[in-house]
Design brief:
The chain is mainly α. The protein folds into two domains: 116 residues, Serine Threonine Protein Phosphatase 5, Tetratricopeptide repeat, CATH 1.25.40; 38 residues, no CATH class. It is built from nine helices and four strands. The protein has a two-stranded antiparallel sheet with strand order 1-2. It has a two-stranded antiparallel sheet with strand order 3-4. Helix 1 packs antiparallel against helix 2, helix 1 packs parallel to helix 3 and helix 5 packs antiparallel against helix 6. The protein is globular and about 45 Å long. 20% of the residues are buried. The N terminus and C terminus are likely disordered.
């Protein structure tokens, strides 16, 4: 721990881990003090802040004291994304949808590209029957997130895909000599199964 004191980037995660350990040992008061110290040394934009707030929330939730945590954060008059996003989530969890939406909007003003938070707003508006109040950018982000990329198998050309489907669905029957026969010549299909000596495509039927 002493070696980490000179570097806040290392000290904040160390304190976060210590706070978590204290919380698991049910030393919640000590854990909260340690996590507050971790927040004081972590930079405003540090990713570790979100993890610290998550642990703090878990402690207050376990003690059924989310209302106390909300009051504490409100008293800080937060303006950074991490605290605003947390406060909005706490409002939503405790049933205050109006404050949750307004706080989410303030958080998105700080980080407009945070897709997960936009999706939370969409779901909350939908649950309140107010989806029409979502901004066009929010609705667009949700639509883009739902769009799934095409699989690599779709890269085949339509003609090849159709031919493969036709070949698989063809009803093959055995002739008396044990050779496969088709109901129609496969010359009608764009799939060829071999190369002639002159380099031109050759139909499988011609070799049967």
């Amino acid at each position: 721990m002493g070696a980490a004191r000179g570097d806040n980037r290392a000290l904040a995660p160390a304190l976060k881990d210590l706070g978590r350990a204290q919380a698991k040992a049910h030393k919640n008061a000590e854990a909260i003090a340690t996590l507050k110290q971790a927040l004081s040394v972590a930079g405003q934009e540090a990713a570790v802040r979100a993890e610290i707030y998550e642990t703090v929330t878990e402690i207050y939730r376990a003690d059924q004291q989310l209302g106390v945590l909300i009051q504490m954060i409100e008293a800080e008059h937060p303006s950074d994304f991490a605290r605003l996003a947390l406060l909005g989530a706490l409002y939503e969890e405790t049933g205050d949808a109006a404050k949750a939406l307004s706080t989410y909007q303030r958080a998105l003003a700080q980080n407009p590209r945070h897709i997960d938070l936009r999706l939370k707003m969409i779901r909350l508006l939908q649950s309140q029957g107010e989806l029409d109040k979502a901004s066009p950018s929010t609705r667009g982000s949700s639509a883009r997130r739902r769009t799934t990329p095409r699989s690599s198998s779709s890269s085949a050309t339509p003609s090849c895909s159709a031919a493969i489907a036709r070949a698989r669905s063809s009803s093959w029957v055995s002739s008396r000599r044990g050779r496969p026969a088709t109901k129609r010549c496969c010359r009608a299909s764009p799939i060829f199964t071999g190369e002639s000596a002159k380099g031109r495509s050759r139909c499988a039927c011609s070799r049967a």
